[in-house]
Amino acid sequence: MESFLRVNETNEHFYERCTNLSYFDCSEEEMLWWMMGPRRLPLQEIIPISVVLLVIFLTGVVGNVAVCVVIVRHPGMHTATNYYLFSLALSDLLLLLFGSFLDFPQIV
């Protein structure tokens, strides 16, 4: 926000000039920043979010691979219900591998 403040301008003055319709003196970039927030998350928010998403990813991959391996290796597990669970684990694994990285926050 400091990059949008003019010389000797406080946050209140910035808010006033970007929200006062009778005296509107706000650029498009300033207005977008005011309404939508910064384009990048600060590093102190990126790191915990990334760690949580990485733990979810690794837990999902390990758990779904374990389910698939157990069902394939043990002949007693070859039932219709377990084939259905195998299918669900495989689809969840594919979603984790190919779809998870689209949800990671943008650093740049």
Question: Secondary structure elements and their pairing?
Answer:
Layout: H1 11-19, H2 28-36, H3 43-73, H4 80-99
Helix pairs in contact: 3-4
Structure explained in plain terms:
There is one protein chain. This protein folds into 2 domains: 1-39, no CATH class; 43-102. It is 64% helix and 0% strand. The chain has 4 helices and no strands. The protein has helices spanning 11-19, 28-36, 43-73, 80-99. Helix 3 packs antiparallel against helix 4 (80-99).
β-strand percent reads under 5%
> How many structural domains does the protein architecture include?
2
**Mean pLDDT, rounded to whole units?**
84
**Discrete helix count:** 4
Helix content: 55-70%
Membrane topology: Multi-pass membrane protein
Main location: membrane
Family: Belongs to the G-protein coupled receptor 1 family.
Pfam family, one: 7tm_1
Give a brief description:
The chain contains four helices and no strands. It is an all-alpha fold.
Protein traits:
transducer, Neuropeptides capa receptor-like, G-protein coupled receptor, mainly alpha, transmembrane helix, GPCR_Rhodpsn_7TM, 108 residues
